Amino acid sequence: MPRPSRFGRSCWKGISDSCREAATRDLIARRSAVLSGQQPQAVVLGCSDSRIPLTQIFDQDLGELFEVRTVGNVVDAVGMGSIEYALVHLPVRVLIILGHERCGIVEGRRIRR
After folding, report:
1. Rg (CA), the chain
2. Are residues 56 and 100 in the same domain?
């Protein structure tokens, strides 16, 4: 197995340091509050694009959205199963399909044609 590069180790350190900082905030209390079960208000089908933070866009907290993220909002059997699970077994009443501009996968596909 290849060893992680210096960049990879540095990147992981930055991510793990951020996690430790976030854990010191209200996240620990919120996480404890939602451990007993999921009670999301909506299912959101969104793009996997890291620039699209669904909970921030909708100003929601941990546990308030059931997120299904796929590349380019293309839903396969696994994604559809996740959506169906949420609609059948969780108290959601809304399904939101969120697209966005400048989606990398859509742009890449358009350029190749």
Report:
1. 17
2. yes
* Cβ neighbourhood burial of 14 (10 Å; 0-12, 13-18, 19+): exposed
Report pLDDT for 105. Answer: 67
Q: Are strands 94-98 and 42-47 parallel, antiparallel or unpaired?
A: parallel
Considering the domain architecture, whether residues 11 and 61 belong to the same structural domain is answered as no
Distance between CA atoms of residues 111 and 56, nearest Å? 30
- Co-location of 48 and 96 in the same domain: yes
Mean pLDDT (the chain) is 81
The range of the structural domain enclosing residue 24 comes to 1-34
Q: Is-contact 91 38, C-beta < 8 A?
A: no
